[in-house]
Amino acid sequence: MPAGVLVGWSAGAPALGSLACSTGAMREVRRPDWWPYPESCQHGHPWGPGRVIVSWMPCDCGPARAERQRGPGHLTVSCQVPGCRSRWYRPDHDPGAAG
Question: What's the number of CA atoms in the CB half-sphere (13 Å) around residue 49?
Answer without folding.
Answer: 6
